[in-house]
Amino acid sequence: MTTPDRPERANTDRPRLVYRLCHADDWQAAVRAGTFTGTDVDTRDGFVHLSAADQVEETARRHYADVRPLILVAVDTARVVGDLRWERSRDGAAFPHLYGSIPLEAVLSALPLAEDRDHHLIFPLLTNTPGDV
To answer: With bands split at pLDDT 50, 70 and 90, how would you rate the model's confidence at 98?
Structure first.
């Protein structure tokens, strides 16, 4: 049973594919290191912030409005290192939080996000299933 003080653990009902938004410089540092361990915000919070497909655009709007160039990283949760927990966050929704790191082998794609004429990010079709990427 999930309570406000008790996180939801990853299970088979959860999406296997999750996403991470990050500045291009942070992504390049991860590529050089062979793993993504997060940013200063992640370090402060104690976990790597991730989003499900239906959470990405709102996450971008709220937390990455002024971050450019922005990279969208698709992550296979079966290949991450550490403990993936689905914890209540924004508006009570469960978000994937990784208490660990994302090795490059867990990354299915890393796409730079373009903007339209009005400077709105253009997102590809997002899915929760790795075979659809």
So the answer is: very high
For the chain, how many residues are written? Answer: 133
Q: State whether CATH 3.40.50.2000 applies to domain 8-113.
A: no
Q: Which helix (H) or strand (E) holds 62?
A: helix 56-63
pLDDT digits (tens, 9 = 90+) for 14-36: 999 999 999 999 999 999 999 99
Q: Kindly state the tokens that stand for 44.
A: 């402060």
Rounded distance between C-alpha atoms, residue 57 and residue 122, angstroms? 9
**How many whole angstroms from its chain centre is CA 126?**
12
**Global confidence as pTM:** 0.87
Q: Give pLDDT, residue 55.
A: 96
Contacts of 78 (CB under 8 A, 6+ apart): 16, 106
State the burial class of residue 22 (Cβ atoms within 10 Å of its Cβ: 0-12, 13-18, 19+). Answer: buried
Query: Angle at Cα 46 formed by Cα 104 and Cα 66, nearest 5°?
Result: 70
